[in-house]
Design goal:
By secondary structure, the chain is α+β, with helices and mostly antiparallel strands. The chain has one domain: Alpha-Beta Plaits (2-Layer Sandwich), CATH 3.30.70. Helix content is 27%, strand content 18%. It has 7 helices and 9 strands; from the N terminus they run ααβββααβαββαββαβ.
Length: 244
């Protein structure tokens, strides 16, 4: 594995890199979710969350509210959240959307087969880079009518105040998120043309650039990162890979 050179980094718009309080945004029409029997509320009671877990989620919730990724609401729907402790001791917000997924009228998934994608590579394509888009699904806005389906209850650990919040974007764990984001990104990438014989492959939110030339892969990666920034998306710098 090799990393970006200082020159590479100097050529990249620094705003492409993900930070905790910034979420990218695709300039697309807000997405409408179709639910079976929409007049029948989707209601699953909130699971008990220990105080430690709620304290761990406090900053996560506050950041999402500040970024308008979630917002207060009074929804007839509700599904539970969990506080999942990560290896580094921090907490991840996870919503159990199984009840919503079961009631969703799913559009036909147009997601590439990874084996078919990789068959496009040749033995000469020994240099490649992998770009991981951070919180990719959150770049897709939800329309007003669809947001209530993704409501959840939050109890503040400091005030013990309970309120409902809802996602304003495609949430993680929703059955249609990979397909809807993948199609939006695929359409966006039609505006980007790799130079010469450099290959650009997309699988949902992961992008792979490959060619026989190390220099070409580096140059194309820098160009793609700047294109991604111009389209208001974010990339995880720590997960960016250049590999032989």
């Amino acid at each position: 594995m090799f990393k970006l050179t200082k020159k590479n980094e100097a050529d990249i718009n620094l705003k492409v890199w993900h930070s905790k309080r910034e979420v990218g945004k695709l300039e697309i029409d807000p997405i409408h979710i179709i639910i079976k029997n929409p007049k029948d509320p989707i209601r699953v009671k909130q699971y008990p969350i220990p105080l430690e877990g709620r304290k761990g989620l406090k900053q996560v919730i506050d950041d999402l509210l500040k970024g308008r990724t979630i917002e207060p609401c009074m929804s007839p729907h509700n599904t539970p959240i969990l506080a999942v402790k990560k290896a580094d001791g921090s907490y991840q917000l996870v919503q159990d959307l199984r009840a919503v997924n079961a009631r969703t009228r799913i559009r036909f998934p147009v997601v590439a087969n990874p084996y078919t994608l990789l068959n496009q590579l040749t033995p000469k394509d020994v240099w490649y880079s992998v770009i991981d888009q951070k919180n990719a699904f959150w770049t897709c806005p939800l329309d007003e009518k669809s947001r209530d389906y993704f409501a959840f209850q939050w109890e503040d650990p400091d005030t013990n105040k309970k309120q409902q919040l809802r996602w304003t974007v495609l949430p993680q764990g929703f059955v249609e998120s990979p397909n809807l984001f993948g199609q939006a990104l695929e359409h966006l990438l039609t505006q980007f043309t790799p130079k010469e014989e450099t290959k650009l492959l997309q699988y949902v939110d992961d992008l792979l650039i490959a060619r026989s030339s190390k220099k070409s892969v580096r140059e194309c990666t820098v160009e793609l990162l700047n294109f991604i920034r111009a389209k208001s998306l974010k990339v995880s710098k720590s997960k960016l890979q250049f590999t032989l």
